[in-house]
Every structure is written in C-alpha cells, then in structure tokens.
Amino acid sequence: MTEEINLLDEMLKEDDNLTDKQRKILVAATEMFAEKGFAATSTNEIAKKAGVAEGTIFRHYKTKKDLLLSIVTPMMVKMLGPIIIKDLNKVLDKDFERFEDFVRAMIINRQEFLEKNLKVVQIFLQEIPFHPELREQFIEHIGKKVVSRLIQIVGHYQSKGQIVQLPATTVIRLTASTIMGYFAAKYIINPKWNDEEEINQMIHFLKKGLTPDE
Amino acid sequence: MTEEINLLDEMLKEDDNLTDKQRKILVAATEMFAEKGFAATSTNEIAKKAGVAEGTIFRHYKTKKDLLLSIVTPMMVKMLGPIIIKDLNKVLDKDFERFEDFVRAMIINRQEFLEKNLKVVQIFLQEIPFHPELREQFIEHIGKKVVSRLIQIVGHYQSKGQIVQLPATTVIRLTASTIMGYFAAKYIINPKWNDEEEINQMIHFLKKGLTPDE
Amino acid sequence: MTEEINLLDEMLKEDDNLTDKQRKILVAATEMFAEKGFAATSTNEIAKKAGVAEGTIFRHYKTKKDLLLSIVTPMMVKMLGPIIIKDLNKVLDKDFERFEDFVRAMIINRQEFLEKNLKVVQIFLQEIPFHPELREQFIEHIGKKVVSRLIQIVGHYQSKGQIVQLPATTVIRLTASTIMGYFAAKYIINPKWNDEEEINQMIHFLKKGLTPDE
Amino acid sequence: MTEEINLLDEMLKEDDNLTDKQRKILVAATEMFAEKGFAATSTNEIAKKAGVAEGTIFRHYKTKKDLLLSIVTPMMVKMLGPIIIKDLNKVLDKDFERFEDFVRAMIINRQEFLEKNLKVVQIFLQEIPFHPELREQFIEHIGKKVVSRLIQIVGHYQSKGQIVQLPATTVIRLTASTIMGYFAAKYIINPKWNDEEEINQMIHFLKKGLTPDE
DNA sequence: TATGAATGAGCTTTCATTCAT
DNA sequence: TATGAATGAAAGCTCATTCAT
Fold first, then answer.
1. What residue ranges does this record give for the DNA-binding region (chains A, B, C, D) (predicted)?
2. Distance between C15 CA and the closest CA of chain D, angstroms
3. DSSP 3-state helix, strand, coil percentages of chain B (rounded to 5)?
C-alpha cells in the first residue's frame, strides 16, 4: 500500500560509495541535530554517538555545516522535490473526480512521508530560520515547482465548478493550513484521537468551506 | 483603536529597577537571538551590540540561558497569559452575536499583538524545540488556560446553533490553523495582498466550513 | 585562670576606628580563608557573608591581599610576638625549678592560645607556603626573637644539669616537634583521648629523652 | 644503595599511553602547583610552561582539578601505599634486633623517598586542607594500612621489652613527630648541620625517651 | 581510509577592582 | 562612609578543524 521511502535509509543504501562509518555519522548527526539543534550539537558528540573518530567526520564533510546540508539538502533537492512532483502526478493521473478525493489522497500521501521522515523534517523546520541558503534552496528548487503545480490543480477543480473562485494561492493556503494544523496537532500535541474520523471531519470542513457560493 | 502593548518596551519601562545598561542588553539580545538563534549568538556579540562590557551581562543574568528566559518567560507568564485572558474577556464581553464576529475580533486582536512583538514571538517559536522547560512552562501557565477558555467560547456558539457540533478541540484546531496559516503567510512569505480582503475571505471560509450541517 | 585572648576579637574590639562593617568583613574573611583558602575565596563571597557591598571591602582594604595581611600580620606582629615574649617572661619569671615544669607550662599556655585562635593560625599555616613576604615577616619579627629566647632558656636548664648537652637548637627542635605533634594529632585527627594523661606521657617522654647521659 | 624511585618519573615512564605532551603537562603542572598552589596557578601558565596549547591540557584532563588529582592520587594510591607497605616489609623482614635500628632504617628509607619526591609531597601537603576528597582518599587508602602496620611493629618491640608500655598510637605519634620535625627543619629551614650526627642524636633521644621505666 | 592528538580561537563565566552616586 | 553597577582582563573550558601517522 505504501511505496513511500525513508529518506535517510534511502540515501544510506542507495549511495554505494558511502562508507559504513559515513552511514553511522549521518544517522548519529540526524539524531542529535533533531534533538539539540545544529548549533548546540558538537562534532565531538556526533563522533562519539557514531562510534567514529572526530577526524573521520571531517574526512567526509569538509565542515560541520556541510554535514547538516548533506542531511537536509538531499531531502529537498533529490528527494522531496521529485517525490512530490511524482506523487502529485500519481495523484493527478488518477484524475480524482472530486476535489475532496484529491485532498484525501494528498493527506494520506503526505502523512506517510512525514511518518517515515520525522527527524529530517524536524531538523529542516528547526534550522531553516537560521540558514538563509537553506531557505533560498527550498524556495528555488522545491517551493516554486510545488506551488505552480498546485495552482494548476486548483484551477482544474475550479474549472469543474467544485471549488470557490478565490485566488489559487488563497485556496492553497487555506487547504495547506488546515492540513498542516492537523499534522502539527498530531505530531506535537500527540492527542489520542481517531485519525480516520479526524481526517474525515477535516475534509468535510474543507469541502464546505471551499464550496462555491451560490 | 489599539491598546496592545509591545512586550519588550513594556518590560523595559515598567520595571523601574532595570538599569539603563540592562535595557540595552535586553534589546540587543532580543535582536540577536531572533536573528541568529540562541545557541549561535555569543555573549560577546550581545555585549558589543548593547555597548556594555561582557561582565555586565552576567551581573544581571547569572547565565546566558537566564537572559533568554528573562526575555521569553515574561512574555508568557506575566504578559501573554493575562493579556490573552483579558483580551478574550474583552472579546467575549461584547458578546458578539455571531461566531464570525468573534473570529474577526480575535484575528485583529492577535494581529496587533504579533505586529508589536514579532521578535520575541520569533525567538519563542525558534527556541521552543530546544528548551523543554520553555515548553512545559508554556503548556502549564498559558496553554491550558487559553484552551479551556476557548472551549467555553466554542460551546457558547455551538449552543446558539451557529457552529457545527464537532468536538470543541477540533473546532479550535481548524480555526486556529486557518488563522495561523494566514499569519505565517503574511510574516514569512510576506505577500503583497490586501489584508482586509484576505481576512474577509478567511472568515467567510471558516463560517462556511463550520456551519452546522442541515 | 586563662588570660589568653582571642586575637581576632581583640583586634576587633581594641581598634576603635574599626567600623561595624569592617568587623563583619574581617570575621567573614577569616571564616572563608580558613575554609577554602585565600586564592579560592572571592571578594564577592566575603561581601555576601559579611552582609556588605563588595565596594566596602575595597574602601577599607586596598586589595584582597591587604585583607589577608590585615588578618594574619597583626597575629604575628602585634600579638603573637609580644604575647609570646610576654608569656615566656611570665613562664621564665616563675623560674620553674625543673625543665619539665617549664615544658608543662609552655604546653598549657600554647594550648590555650591555639584553642582561641584556631582559624587564624590555620590560615597562617595554609597560606605561608604561597606568600614569601609572610614567611619573611614571620622569621624577622617573630621567629628570631622566639628562638633566641628559647636558646637562653635551654641554656638555663642545661647549666642546671637537667638536660642533655646537645646544641640548643636541637633540644628546641626535639621538644617543639613533640609538642607540635601532639597539637597536630589533637586538632587534625581529633582523637578521643585524655588530654591530661597524654600530656603527662609526653612530658615524661621528653624528660627521659633529654636527660643528660651519665 | 637506594632503590627508591621518583614517583613522577616513574609515572611518566611506566605509563605507555602517555603522550609526550601529556608528560610535559604533568611536569609543568607539578612545578607550578608546588610553587604557587593549585588555585593560584592558571591552566594558561601550565600550558605555556609545558609548551603546549591550552586545549591540549583539557583533552587529557577533563578539568583542572583532574590534573591535580592525576598528579597526587597515583602518589598515594598506586605508589605511596604499596611502596610504604613493601618498604616496611623490607624493613621488618630484616627483623632488626633493636627498635633503634628499625627507626634508623625507617628514617633513611623515608628520607630517600622524600628527597626524590619533594615537589609532589609538597603539593600534597599544601592542597590537602582544601580538598576533602584528597583527605578521605589518603585516610582510606593509605593512612589506615600504614597505621595498622605500625601498630604491629610497636607491639613487636614492646613484647621484646625494648620500649615502654604506652598505647601503640602514642608511641607512633611521639616517634613520627620527632622524625617529621627533623624533616621539617631539614627541608624548610634548611640548616647547615651534619645529617648523620643529627640523626644519631635523634635516635638516641627516641631510644631514651621510649625506654621502659624500671 | 581512519585515527585521535593537537591546535588556538572563541566560548561562557568569574574576578578584583573602580567609581559615580 | 557605603553602595552596587560597571568594568575588562583573565579564568576554565569547548569547539571545529588540521594533520602526522
């Protein structure tokens, strides 16, 4: 049912010229960066946790920041981007009859992605305020493509008369906010709710909220 | 029209036993923490920016973390909490006939707050993942009170038949997500939109989305 | 029975131009220096313990070292010296018939002194390795006088045929070592012994050990 | 004639996993601690004197206090203890006919030890008042063993009727005081005396002083 | 390739001391 | 006289990074 992949594992396996040590470093660094933040994690700690010498880290990653980028950039550039696009195609290709079906597919799709890449996403969200390059990379390589794709989709359902004639970006924002609010609640507050029911209610809310005014 | 106050200024003026230097330290630290993050800001930088000796910082704040807390805790404990409560009273006391009027009042009220305290809120959001005490303090002193208040309010409008009979927390989440999505877009992406129109659309969306099903 | 005085109290009372604060500083500093050593005690700690402002210390004592000297020098220069001399006179004037009576008087006399000035003596002994001036002061102002006096006394009892014809300094060393060993055991190891009996045994040991060889 | 070893040299040579730099650090630290005291010696000074970077010190010794302990503890735990025991055995095994012969052997034995380890012993004596752990370590690991051994020995000579029937601890105290008084005079006052003669007189004094009363 | 000792700049914090009030 | 805020040098210590092995 799920063909989603864990980005980190993927990266580790796929890349054949990755040493065993290198894998260990990436895993350890991901763990620590997520927990304490990039700036507050020392290369010494990472080395210890990875069970390698400190020098080994710098043999593979010129600087500490390089290490961060090698965790977070692939997620965006190599994986997040293509995957999103691919997934969106997948979603669109099925040509869901109704907007609400499309939204449901999106939610489930992103949910699986999140579930498998929590740590890296967490690092990304935590560090993006402090690294302008990260921000720019994200906007340039991912953001723009995703947004333009979504605009098409919104237009598609608007032209079918299923959703209200607001600016596409507004529709996207309202929808995305609602979905991300759901994820935030789920992963930060961690409530004991029934996922399926909650998703149904959310979609019902979106459907009603975005229904064209008569 | 706005009686909102800038938290930092407030703190600086109100507290009579704050030295001039201490004020400068707080302003400089807020600036730097917001920009580079707590861990990546050195006390040396803060001292230079504040135009004081480094020792002066530690005369007033036992540790660097103390300095962070003395910026962020008052916001929560002394100011955010009471203000929210007071504001909510203000909002509720008017007993807005319609849920949408209440939401509009809330948006404007929080908008003003945000506008005047962007930096401190930014620090708070950026640092909360790395400081468990901050998280606990926030939940204990602020979160719980605010949520229980909002639950009352939702119940109020539900009993008037204005909004759908979902669990109050779900209603709150859907509403809050939408509003926060608006703020996120406004302050992060900084689009050139028409605030008033955007707010109107958002409220319309919420109203429709939360209308009771017939 | 005892006319011994507590050096610190003496100093505090006697000196009329000592402020109340100054007294508190001296008491606090003595306490801390004895406990943690001079170098490891901060003026801040002393100020807190004394209940005065840090500046007040430096109003009275130009430097931290000045404070140390003003505790330890009077003990030597003003008090230890004269007192020893005076006391020795007292002891000698009685012209104890036997050497052992003289020794006993000495032990009791020094015991009382120690008992009342443990802290200051402790500071003196602890700090003397690190402060050459202290060492020189002691030798110059106290040591020489005391030694030359003791040489006279030893000569006195040697000429009476009561003690062996060794160099006076050797006799002094053997006697002083024995007495100081007793004090060291008493104040450092703090054994549960009978003081009087122990002193009797010690004197008996000295008497036998220093008896002229036939 | 002497098989005594210099503790520090011993430590430095023996331990094969000691870096060259580490050796230099230990030598420099010993020098400085002896001269200025632990608290008054800065790690910066030690680094300069050792010709290493300051960071190097902390790579090998987690804290400055660690450095002190790594100089002083081995002396007690690994070396002083066993050596004393071993030496005492050596001394006892010869089963000196007379108590005075035993004492003489002891003096010479300890004299050699002192001569070769003056600095470390000096540090130990100077710092013990300020470091309770040091005190406890010493009592636990060294003091108790040495004392119980000495009690046996005293009993041995008492049963042979050579020394007076005082409590063994009293005999030990009187003897040790006399010997340590000799060492104190020798190493602190540094008199120009004839060692051998002085030792003979001291032993004669002890013998007479501890002779059983008829 | 991997190590880990070594570095020195820079970190947070402490300190004795000064000085305006 | 007494204060305590302010100082800046120096403390102990951490850090990312280098390099000989």
1. 42-61
2. 31
3. 80, 0, 20
